Amino acid sequence: MSLTRRQRALQSGKDASTSLIEFPNGLPPAPPTKAAQKRRVQVAKAAKESEAEAIRKILGQDSNRKKREDKLKKRRDELAQEKAANAWTLPPNTIRWVIRPTGTVVTFSEDVGLPSIFSSKPCSYPPPCEKCAGSSCTNP
């Protein structure tokens, strides 16, 4: 009867004690995996950096990176405000007509001027009523 691979492996394991490899200077060191070392170095570096950042934050010192980010954010905000201001000012000789669900808006540039319908007139009351001349009139 033939043996299975598992049975042969178990049998050869029992016989292996007689054919062991001997190392006179002990076992050779396992080769270090460079990827694991690189990860450990990166983790240590990140930990040091976060610790230093926390210390700077506690002491109130901003890092150069933070200053650059603030400067860029400030510049972006200024550009956005400038752009928004320019969006409301119309070029000369222009009429802007905007139709939205909330209503229609018509905007005139300064040099076009408003149509006479929009010109503001001082508010005046109607002239007083005339007095009646009839004998049965109750108006004074």
From TrEMBL:
Single GO cellular component term: Ino80 complex
Annotated segments matching region Disordered: 1-78
SMART domains hit by this protein: PAPA-1
Residue stretches of biased makeup (Basic and acidic residues): 46-56, 63-78
Positions of the INO80 complex subunit B-like conserved region domain: 33-112
Entry superkingdom: Eukaryota
One biological process term in Gene Ontology: chromatin remodeling
PANTHER family: INO80 COMPLEX SUBUNIT B, OS03G0811500 PROTEIN
Name of the molecule in the record: INO80 complex subunit B-like conserved region domain-containing protein
